Amino acid sequence: MPPMKLSRRQLLCLGALELSGLARVAVAQTDWPRQPIRLVIPLAPGGAADVAARHLGAQMHKLLGQPVVVESKPGADGVLAMADVARSKPDGYTIGLATATGLSYAPNIRKSLPYDVLKDFTPLSSFVTFTFFLMVHKSVPGKDLAEVVAHLKANPGKYAYGASSSMAILATEQLMADAGLDLVRAQYKGEGPMVADLFSGRVQIAWATPAVLPALQKDGNTRAVAVLLPERSPLLPDVPTLAQSGQALVNVSPWGGMVAPANTPKPVVEALSKALREAMTAPDLLSQAGSNGLIVRASTPQEFGDFLRQQKSAWGAAIKLAKLPVEQ
């Protein structure tokens, strides 16, 4: 069959239709948002990060003129929430609070996931870094981390560390490898039981969140010797970082950041990222987050994407170092 020839009028009509379609796409992209935005978070209601995310949503409502509806989907190392975001329509009306557990830990520990960390999400911005203090029981001598490490190194296998999260295990194992320590691991299902054993001296060293500091510091039973942050925490400004204490910086980070489904249109990504970064400057958000040990720090989508790749690799190396069981 010979190729079909189109008249000049038909070609003009087709061109008009194509331009009309492009115009509709452009309008659809720039007319965002026209409905409420869903923010999926992998945490139970009431925690520090959950409250911070709700503050963030309220600020975005003011900026965008549309409500941000928070949906909590805790469980399965954050996989449930991240799977929801990954399979959502990429139209800018579903975003998620991603955490290190769901996008750095789970991909390195699980045989299969319902999403690909680097292919199924569009990075929007970093959000928070969680604060962890290295607490030491009074039975371990040393006025600072260097002296504590020296004592532990001189007594291999005689002391135990407590850990109630993958973050705590990996950070301690990296510290042990760098300093040449031999500590017994005691693993807990929650921070409460770990705090009780650290306070009583059943374990002698552990990473702890700001929420349990009052209980741990009661009667001077434990003391903080380092903080797992790039800079000192305003909660305990006299406590140095690992680097300031002469130890190599642990490169697994307890982070949280914002993502959208893959293939979200670029204009919508730019608008979302801009709104997120502006919302993160709100004084009430910064005050609430800071009082709970959350360091708020925004970024560009490119910066957060680079960070996601770096952390996935860092957590993988740390998991091998800690010899954590990986699904086969």
Automatic annotation (TrEMBL):
Keyword Oxidoreductase belongs to the record: no
SUPFAM superfamilies xrefs: Periplasmic binding protein-like II (SSF53850)
Record-linked InterPro entries: BUG (IPR005064), Bug_dom1 (IPR042100)
Signal sequence annotation: 1-28
Keyword Glycosyltransferase: no
Keywords: Signal
Domain of life: Bacteria
Family statement: Belongs to the UPF0065 (bug) family.
Classification via PANTHER family: BLR1237 PROTEIN, TRICARBOXYLATE-BINDING PROTEIN
Protein name per its UniProtKB record: Tripartite tricarboxylate transporter substrate binding protein
Organism from which the protein derives: Achromobacter pestifer
